Each structure stands twice: as structure tokens, then as C-alpha cells.
Amino acid sequence: QLVESGGGSVQAGGSLGLSCAASGYTYSSYCMGWFRQPLGKDNEGLAALWTGNGRTFYADSVKGRFTISRDNDKGMLYLQMNLLEPADNAMYYCGYGGFCSSYKFNYSGRGTQVTVS
Asked: pLDDT digits over 19-50, tens only?
């Protein structure tokens, strides 16, 4: 189960931090990450992390602005988003499993809305 939180409204140039509580997964190494879906548009992969070695992946659109991290002890995944722009308006989802390099996840949560004005 994946449950996202931390979305909300922010002015352009501001920051938000998203959290994802993950439970029920037993593999020792797996991919987790974030993707988003702007209203009426396709999914866009943002960031991913391979838990086996901590390697991270970022889409060009967010590189340098967003940071993915995890807390294994708490079963949490995070996305720190800085320098937010109106183009970042979307529903943000946490994903698990699949391929980090392609941001294709096998499972995802219900999402949390981010609005930048």
C-alpha cells in the first residue's frame, strides 16, 4: 500500500515536500519513485530511487529542483520540491516496483494534488 501526503497550494518559487508511506512490500531491493499527471495530460516520471544501492534518477524537467529520498526504517519515501513553477501543477503519485530508469512503476498510490500559482 502506498499513501501520499504533503500536497497543497504554493506560490511560484516556493517549496513543498511530499511524503509516501509504503507498507506490505517484502523485497530487499526495489525501485520507488514519483510521477505526476497534469490535468488532461499524460503521466510524467519525475524521480526514482533504487533501494539496493540508493541510486537516484531524475527527469530533466525537475533535475536540480526536486530531490528524492527515503527512510527505510520508517518505510517512507520523500520528494522535496523547490523553485516550483505553474508548470508543476499536477496530481503527484508515489510508485513502487518496475524500472527506475523509465519511471514505469507496478503500483501507485491515490495521489496528492500540487497547485502552484
From this structure: 999 887 766 788 999 999 999 999 999 999 99
Question: CA separation (Å) from 24 to 8, 55, 117?
Answer: 27, 22, 36
Give the mean model confidence (pLDDT) for residues 76-103. 95
Model pLDDT, residue 26: 61
Task: Characterize 64-83 residue by residue with b for buried, 16 or more Cβ atoms within 10 angstroms of its Cβ, and e for exposed.
Answer: eebbbebeeeeeebbbebee
Distance (Å, whole) CA 109 – CA 7? 13
Count CB neighbours of 84 within 10 A: 21
For the record, the C-alpha cell of 47 comes out as 524521480
CA–CA dist 56, 48 (Å, integer)? 6
Which residues lie across from 16 on neighbouring strands?
A: 81
Report pLDDT digits (tens) over 48-74: 999 888 999 999 999 999 999 998 888
Q: What's the start-to-end Cα distance of the chain, in Å? A: 31
